[in-house]
Amino acid sequence: MIPIISIVGKSDSGKTTLIEKLVPELSRRGYRVATVKHDIHGFEVDREGKDSWRHKQAGAHTVVIASPNKVALIRDVERDLTLDEIREKLIQDVDLILSEGYKKDVQPKIEIFRKGKHEELLCTKEDNLVAIVSDKEFDVGVSCFFLDDVKGVADFIEKKFLRLKAEEGITLKVNGRNVPLKPFIRDFLSGSIKGMVRSLKGCENPQKIEIQIEE
Fold this sequence. Notes:
- By secondary structure, the chain is an alpha/beta fold.
- It has a six-stranded parallel β-sheet, covered by helices on one side. Strands 3-4 form a two-stranded antiparallel sheet.
- α1 crosses α4.
- β9 (172-174) and β10 (177-179) form a beta hairpin.
- It contains five helices and ten strands.
């Protein structure tokens, strides 16, 4: 399952700025990152008069805009989806989801706090707070990082949410040496191998699969 981390904080705390710095740092480490922005006021992504806007105005429930290098999806929802539902329905082939907002969701949270603008934290450990990024030190039982310590925050995310996931479920050994797998590659290999094995007679419910190839 793709891990989700919510970047939370009060208005003007720097949530978007932190995400802007974390995404390239994690991407340089080989991870694919998806982001989700929560906007309680609603939003529009297609301009009036464009073909996609006309499709939606005509009553289409879902509109997809596709090009050679990107795809956009516009669809109606009956309520505000949880991050779990967004992950399940809309996001694939990534190693991590970073959301901006969703302070009331159950997912792990990293809160940004600026002592000149805020008086108290929004979240506690009971809210699944896992770290604080701030210009002030806190002793609340979670990891703390300074505002400019993007590498430290990325190290924390990698160790707590990405490396452990990568080590679960499947291992690759080449010429006697263990080869570390990024989560995306691990999920791809695991899913492909399990799918092929399940199609074999008598292997419909594999619990452990061992493959050895020698040349």
